[in-house]
Amino acid sequence: LVHPREVFAEAIRQRANSIILVHNHPSGDLTPSEDDITITKRLQEAGKLLGIEVIDHIIITKTSYFSFKNKGILK
What's the pLDDT tens digit per position in 45-64? Predict the structure, then answer.
């Protein structure tokens, strides 16, 4: 499970005004799961409360990547 307090802890310590989230899919399938989408939206809302913009969430594999921003999931 992903908790906003853990995701934003270092960003708060560093007084960041934005972050980019990244995680991998070892399976090689770039398709975001429903959990990926839900968590991304939850983190974006938490970031708004904290004044830390979530610029993008990127899923990576060995050969490619998926950008939530490019696909319109993050606005």
Answer: 999 999 999 999 999 999 99
